[in-house]
Design goal:
The protein has about 450 residues and is an alpha+beta fold. The chain contains ten helices and 18 strands.
Length: about 450
């Protein structure tokens, strides 16, 4: 809390009324500054602690208006049972709130008397002033003060002018508290959403091959898998079928939750093609997925444009040193090194869920050798830009492969990841990133 100036206890009998009022208003303008460490209650208590002694009062209450009531937020010398909520129109404060007009009572001129207890002493109240706190014609609350003596015209004028500033501050505090409450609601909703997405990530992870399974089938391999958000539109596939291995990466439209839902659909169709339909030819698998996407999604919504890019390889060991590679894909490029030479092989340019109906994807066969390497990547790695918006690109990726392919998979993993981090620096990640390397 900021240190605040003490209020000079001016003699109320001063003849220079205007000077006194302006001086006090200036001091209270500083006293009423609201800071983040305060609540409306502590702010109100601080105000009354200075205001009541200045005016030689004995008791005070500050009410804030809610929808249909006044709520007590701060008090001075309030003892005994105190009504903390007052209906608009009920009692003196409620009537002031209803009419937006001050009420001044001098009990010496009335048959009714009002007394208050201060400790063990009962004191007879002489004057009571309840004044509306109005800002931009909107009631913000009511200020009620009591005196043992008569209140002077100068004090009334001072309180009327001060009430405008109190009302303005209450309006600011109310706006801040509403904003804090909204932020609290947003944070709570975000926490719940993130918790749900984290749970969804656990479900999605259960569909992905475990790293120990990948390294059991391909001992010299590595995986870089970095979702842009908590869940990913990318997924990868590894499965063994006697002396054959199916390997691939799939990049579904979008990322985050939409991409993750699409990845579950893609994973389901891929699993269905391989294990239920017993299809191992990559071209036929891609055709099956394309038809399945069109059947499941496009038939229900003709405007549906989402799909996926993917690359699949069926790797068959022909002999101790020779391998047959069947490759097919949709808008994907397979990278690798064979016979110490870099190569890249483009797949079918027709996207999954294309406007082309009954499109058949075909496989391309490669003969490769023991020690050759294959690199499966979604476009997230190649498309990642640095702070100057320069992508890694195909040429940059080729340079990395040619530079790193000779070293072990463990070291390659570190080198590719280090290059990605140094290239990206503080730039935002653009897309989900999946890079799978294996050595035959």
């Amino acid at each position: 809390m900021h240190s605040l100036p003490s209020v000079t206890n001016y003699t109320l009998a001063s003849n220079d009324k205007d000077h006194w009022i302006l001086t006090q208003l200036d001091l209270f303008a500083k006293l009423m500054l609201f800071n983040e460490s305060q609540t409306i209650a502590t702010w109100g208590e601080h105000l009354l602690e200075h205001l009541v002694p200045l005016l030689h009062g004995v008791r005070a209450a500050l009410y804030c208006k809610t929808a249909t009531t006044l709520t007590l937020v701060a008090g001075y010398a309030l003892e005994g049972e105190v009504q903390t909520v007052i209906n608009i129109g009920e009692g003196i404060a409620g009537e002031v709130a209803k009419t937006k007009a001050k009420v001044l009572l001098n009990y010496n001129d009335m048959e009714v008397h009002l007394s208050v207890g201060v400790g063990t002493t009962t004191l007879q109240i002489n004057s009571l002033l309840a004044i509306p706190l109005v800002f931009n014609e909107q009631l913000q609350g009511v200020l009620e003060l009591m005196w043992l003596q008569s209140i002077t015209p100068k004090e009334i004028e001072f309180l009327e002018r001060l009430s405008e500033r109190i009302a303005a501050t209450l309006n600011i505090i109310a706006a801040k508290e509403q904003l804090i409450e909204k932020n609290r609601d947003i944070e709570e909703k975000n926490t719940n959403i993130i918790a749900s997405i984290n749970y969804a990530q656990r479900i999605q992870s259960a569909f992905l091959p475990k790293l120990d399974y990948l390294q059991k089938i391909f001992p010299d391999s590595f995986l870089i898998y970095i979702p842009k958000d908590i869940v990913s539109g990318d997924f990868y596939w590894v499965s063994g079928h006697d002396n054959k291995r199916l390997v691939g990466v799939i990049d579904c439209t979008g990322h985050g939750v939409p991409g993750a839902f699409m990845s579950l659909i893609g994973h389901g169709l891929l699993s269905e093609a391989i294990f239920q339909q017993r299809i191992l030819d990559p071209g036929e698998i891609v055709t099956y997925i394309n038809n399945g996407i069109r059947e499941k999604l496009l038939n229900s919504d003709k405007s549906f444009q989402d799909g996926m890019d993917l690359g699949l390889c069926l790797i068959e060991e022909l002999s101790e040193n020779h391998y047959s590679i069947l490759y097919a894909g949709a808008k994907h490029v397979l990278f690798g090194v064979t016979g110490s030479k870099y190569f890249s092989l483009k797949s079918d340019r027709t996207a999954i869920n294309s406007i082309k109906q009954n499109h058949r994807y075909t496989s391309t066969q490669l003969l490769m050798y023991k020690g050759d390497t294959l690199y499966f990547s979604t476009d997230g790695f190649l498309d990642q830009s640095n702070p100057q918006r320069k992508r890694i690109g195909t040429a940059g990726f080729q340079q990395l492969i040619e530079e790193y392919w000779k070293v072990s998979a463990v070291l390659q993993h570190k080198l590719f990841l280090k290059y990605l981090q140094e290239h990206q620096q503080h730039a935002d990640q653009r897309d989900d990133i999946t890079l799978l390397m294996l050595q035959l």
